[in-house]
Structures are given as structure tokens and as C-alpha cells.
Amino acid sequence: MSLPAPEEFLRIARGWADLGWVRALDVALAEQLHTLAPAPCSSCLLASVLVSHQAGQGHLLLNLTDTQRRPRAVIAVDPDTDRPDWPTPEALIDALVEPWASQLTAWAAVTDGAGSTPLVLIDDALYLRRYYRHETAVAEAVAHRLAEAPRLSADAVRPIADRLFPPADHPAEAAANATQKMACALAARSQFAVITGGPGTGKTNTVIRLLGLLQASALDAGHPTLRIRLAAPTGKAAARLDEAIGGQIDQLRTLDLPGGEALHQAIPREVTTLHRLLGARPGTRHFRHHAGHPLPLDMVVVDEASMVDIEMMTALLDALPAHARLVLLGDRDQLASVEAGAVLGRLCAQAEGGHYQAETAQWLQAATGEAVDSSLRDDTGRPLDQAIAMLRHSFRFDAGGGIGQLARAINTGDAQTALNILKAQDHDDLDYRGLHGADDPTVARLITSRADYPMRPAADAERAEWDAWATAILETAGQFQMLTPLRRGPFGADALNQQIEQALARTGQLGSAGPPGRWYAGRPVMVTGNDYGLKLMNGDIGITLRVPAPFGDPEQGEDLRVAFRSEGRVRWVLPSRLQHVETVYAMTVHKSQGSEFAHTALIVPDTAPPVLTRELIYTAVTRARERFTLLCASDRVLTQAIQRQVTRQSQLFS
Ligand SMILES: Nc1ncnc2c1ncn2[C@@H]1O[C@H](COP(=O)(O)OP(=O)(O)OP(=O)(O)O)[C@@H](O)[C@H]1O
């Protein structure tokens, strides 16, 4: 077949949008571009629909060669959809005869980055200009920081590093300590560093020691201490880091570091969100801090960096003063942000192999007394590799534990071993249950049989008692979380939440199920957008409770309030003030990122949606601290998911 004329193509593309194959937004872009700069042929408009579609899938670019080679990897058409009598995207991609890139070069909407055209073509990578700009800005800012000479001499680092990481007795711990010590020194050496590792590998422990090292050496040299802020992409992740660091900072006191009390005063204990740090302006994409008004800081540490998308990373690098250090912490194997650009994944793509040059290895040995393993040496390693440390020993999941073994099998794509581990029933921390359809009562039973909630205070109790009660309830509710890959459909979070509400109503655990979104005592909700007025952040979880209003005065009657814990205290919010919340007996795995629960249960549906990937299953499993349950409707779907790894299209750090 031959390609249709541009106008006819746009009509076909609108049909694709009606069928849900692409977004209306993707077609609107092509229409707008064609109005501004008429396309010489429809292959140009096809490319513009696809590059926008790719952005919606989290990719920064459309690779033209790969798209022609494997159209289905870019746009998979649902085989069950009634096909119209017009061509599919795949058929049109197959019909391209002329070299696609040279057709695009002839279009006024495309340049190689010069000017301000909406599309940019670099070799055979087509970008929306916005993402091209972000990718270039992030790559340049990181390269600039990496090019700076080492900040600290190995001789200055050594005595402090030795105190920070005293020798451990147990061989496994001694090895983990040595890796953390090297990661800490590596991060101290340059202005940009990444510390990656799975759950409980000591990223936080290492970074707190890094802060101790930097502040102690500043004090030792008679310099002012660094102005440091700790941040995370979501409120929930910030709160979790906040809880984790207190004890680890206190441990520093026992290590006899230079600087004494002044050192402890110089270690920040508060964690903020990136939005707050940069000064988000409600309703705009702009921040108060940027290159023209940089952050008044010498160092920023970002935890859960896998959730940081390219746009946020650009904004952060833009707002950092040129001299400031940036340290990113995160698990590179976790799901990337839903937004475009898997920045941490790209940064750490080679982390497994180390790739440390001789100079780095010598510096590390001098700074820590530890030798870099020969398997991690590579004299052709890139400057970026010299600033990336990977922690490999988990203190949370012992080597013999089920969750740790399962996470490892998933990460290596070994679906058969993962299934064997799950089904062997010989790990106390794992549980596998078959699901017979989405309305299998097993799902609701996990919620209705939850631990009992603490006793309600007396009606005339003071506010402090209600706060303590709400805290205990939030803790109990936070012990278990049901996770699903999907939002919609029978196995999606929306349907599961309704099903669970109905089951709770049947067992008398709530008044009546009512329509979705109705407020009732016991309803757990998650905030889905930052609300600066209420001091609630995206990802914060609250629980609806019936309490005297006002507290301490039962005569006035009772009312529903949603209790949240934020910034170390309970915040009671009127339900009507919560504009962006959803019920979270079940939540999507994407929403669970940055959170952790004693027990999680993951639903694997009976068909494989594109979102069900290795990263998603790994993220769900590693949300569990003590116990993981798999509710599996199809072993085949689980196997396919573990074998499917997403590669976000991008040229960042390539
Ligand atoms: N070198 C070490 N020796 C002994 N215990 C350690 C060491 N490093 C970390 N731990 C302990 O292991 C646990 C996990 O450490 P940490 O919180 O630093 O890991 P993490 O990688 O930041 O975890 P997460 O994935 O939850 O962010 C903590 O209880 C910590 O005290």
C-alpha cells in the first residue's frame, strides 16, 4: 500500500485516537504542526503522532530505525479492538519507502536542534523540542559537574572514613561495610554522585556518613560547614527518609569524629519534597529557584531518585549553584517515574560492572584502604562511571529469606525460579495464592481479616488522646497494602476498592458501601496532588475517622475528619477540603513507590497489560518489609511480565 495524503492521514489518525491506539493529544499535535508548517508528506505527520505517543509512554524520543524494524514495540494495537477499514499504524510504518529521516529533514517543523522548531531530529532520533532541551540540559549539567577536579584529597578522607566505617566482625557485614565505605568516599570525591542499591542495602546509612565526612572535614580544615538539604520526589518518600535518618545521625555521635557538637548541628534532620525545595508555584511549571535565583545551598541529596523524571531533574540542576554538590540515591531496578525520562536508570545503566579507571581505583584505595575488585575495573570507563557506586548486600532481606531471593530472581528475569520460590511454601515471608477471577473472595478477605484497630478514646478525651489514637490506627492500617498493576478494569484499583468496600459493608465493618468516593469512617485515602495550603503532599495517606468536633467537647456532636501524619504530628482535615484523593485499600504499584509496608499483596491479572513488567513486579515485591503475598490469576502472565523489561528510549548518557 502507499501512504495517504496528509489530510487523509490526519483523518485516519483521528480514528486511531477514537480507538484509543494513540491519544487525542498526539493527533492534535500533528494537526497543529501541519497548520503551522504544512508537512511535505504524511510520513512526517505519522512521525509527529508517534513521537508524542512515545512521550506519553515515558520515552524521550522516537527512534526511527527501531520503529521501522519493530513497529509493535512502539505502538501495539489491541487485537480485540474492532478494526476499522482504514490502515493501522503498523501498516503505515510498513508502507514507508523513502528514508524516513530525510523526509523529516525536508519539513520546516524539524531541525537538528537549531532555532526553535517544535521537533528536533538527531541522526534517527526524533524528539519533541521540550524533551530534547531537557535531555541536553541534564547531560551538560552532569558532565560539567563531573569535569570538576576532586574536592577532597584521599589523605584528608582516610582518617575520617576509617572512623565512620569501623571494621565489622561478620565477614558478610565486613564486605558490605567496605562497599559502603568506598561508595561514601566516591561520593565525597566529586560534585555529582549516585549511590544505587536494592532495598536495605544501606544507601541511607552511607549518605548520612557521607554528610558526617564532609562536615567533619570542613570543620577539621577550619572551613564553614556545608549548607545541605535532603529531598525526595514525593511527600511519602520524604516522610520515610525523615523517619529513617534520626537513628543513623545519632549513631554518628558514637564515632568520635572531628568537630564534636558543631558537626551534629551541621547534619540536616529534615527532609523536604523536591517541589518544596525548588519553590513550586501552584498552577505553573515554574519554580521560584532557577539559574537566575539559585538555591542558597552547597549540597542537595535526593532519595528515591528513580521517581525523578527528566523535567524535575532539569529544574533541580538548573536551580543548583555551580559549586554545589548533588548526590542521588535510589534503586535503579525500580519502576521509573510515569513521566518521561528514566534518569536514574540511564545514569546507572552500567553500574553492575563498576567500570572504574585505574586512577579512581587508586584514589579509592588511598581514601579507604579498600581495594577495588578487579571485576569492577575498566580503564575505558566513562567519567560518569567514576561517580556511581552500587551497594549489593541487603541488610533488610537476609540471603536465605524468601523476599530477597524472589527479588533477585525477578531482577535477573528468571521467571521459573521466581515461581518455584513462590510456590515452594518453604519461606515464612512468602505466600502464593491462585486467583479465580477478579471477584475471588480471597482479595477482600485479606482486608476484612486485618488486625483489630486500637480502642477509641472516651468521648470527652482531649486532642492529644485522639492524635495518639489516629497515629495508632494509621500505623495499623499501614501494615498491609494491596497492590495492583492497573487502575482500571476488573483487576484495577478502582474495581478492587469497590469490591472491598462492599465486602466490608457485608461484614458490618462500615455503614454501607455507597457510591465510590463517598466519605465514611474507616475510609483510607491517598492524596494525589500536592496541596500546599493543607500541607499535604502527593502520596500522603490518611484515614477517615469519626471524632468529636471540636475535640474535648462531645456535646457538640461528632463529625468525619481525615487524619494524616505529616511533619511529625497528626493533621485533621475536613473531607470536603480534600479535592484530590482516592480510596486506597488497593493502590497501583506506581502509587506505592517510595512507600514501604510490613506486608504487601500483589495482584497478577489474567491478561498481560503493557504496564506489567519486570520493574513493576520487582517494585511491588520490594515494598514488603516482612511478608509478600502474590495473588495470581495466571502464571503465564506472571512469567511474561518477569521476562519483559522496559527500556525507556533516550540518548541520555549514552
Ligand atoms: N554497614 C552496616 N552495618 C550494619 N547495619 C547496617 C549497615 N548499613 C545499613 N545497615 C542497616 O540496614 C538497614 C537498612 O539500611 P538503610 O536504611 O541505610 O538502607 P537503604 O538502602 O537506604 O534502604 P531503603 O531501600 O529502605 O531506602 C538499617 O536498619 C541500617 O541500620
UniProtKB/TrEMBL annotation:
Binding-site positions, ATP: 197-204
Gene Ontology cellular-component terms for this entry are: exodeoxyribonuclease V complex
Q: Name one Pfam family in it.
A: AAA_19
Give the reaction(s) catalysed.
Answer: ATP + H2O = ADP + phosphate + H(+)
Residue stretches making up the UvrD-like helicase C-terminal domain: 584-630
InterPro entries linked: Coronavir_polyprotein_1ab, P-loop_NTPase, RecD, RecD_N, RecD_N_sf, UvrD-like_helicase_C
The molecular function GO annotations come to: 5'-3' DNA helicase activity; ATP binding; ATP hydrolysis activity; DNA binding; exodeoxyribonuclease V activity; single-stranded DNA helicase activity
Q: Which UniProt keywords apply?
A: ATP-binding, DNA damage, DNA repair, DNA-binding, Exonuclease, Helicase, Hydrolase, Isomerase, Nuclease, Nucleotide-binding
Q: What is its EC number?
A: 5.6.2.3
- Top enzyme class, one word, equals isomerase
Tell me, which GO biological process terms does this entry list? double-strand break repair via homologous recombination
State the SUPFAM superfamilies in the record: P-loop containing nucleoside triphosphate hydrolases (SSF52540)
- Domain RecBCD enzyme subunit RecD N-terminal: residue ranges: 19-127
Give the misc comment. Answer: In the RecBCD complex, RecB has a slow 3'-5' helicase, an exonuclease activity and loads RecA onto ssDNA, RecD has a fast 5'-3' helicase activity, while RecC stimulates the ATPase and processivity of the RecB helicase and contributes to recognition of the Chi site.
NCBIfam families in UniProt: recD (TIGR01447)
Function according to Swiss-Prot or TrEMBL: A helicase/nuclease that prepares dsDNA breaks (DSB) for recombinational DNA repair. Binds to DSBs and unwinds DNA via a highly rapid and processive ATP-dependent bidirectional helicase activity. Unwinds dsDNA until it encounters a Chi (crossover hotspot instigator) sequence from the 3' direction. Cuts ssDNA a few nucleotides 3' to the Chi site. The properties and activities of the enzyme are changed at Chi. The Chi-altered holoenzyme produces a long 3'-ssDNA overhang and facilitates RecA-binding to the ssDNA for homologous DNA recombination and repair.
What PANTHER family has UniProt attached to this entry? Answer: DNA HELICASE B (PTHR43788:SF6), DNA2/NAM7 HELICASE FAMILY MEMBER (PTHR43788)
Name-wise, this protein is RecBCD enzyme subunit RecD
Say which species the protein is native to. Spiribacter salinus M19-40
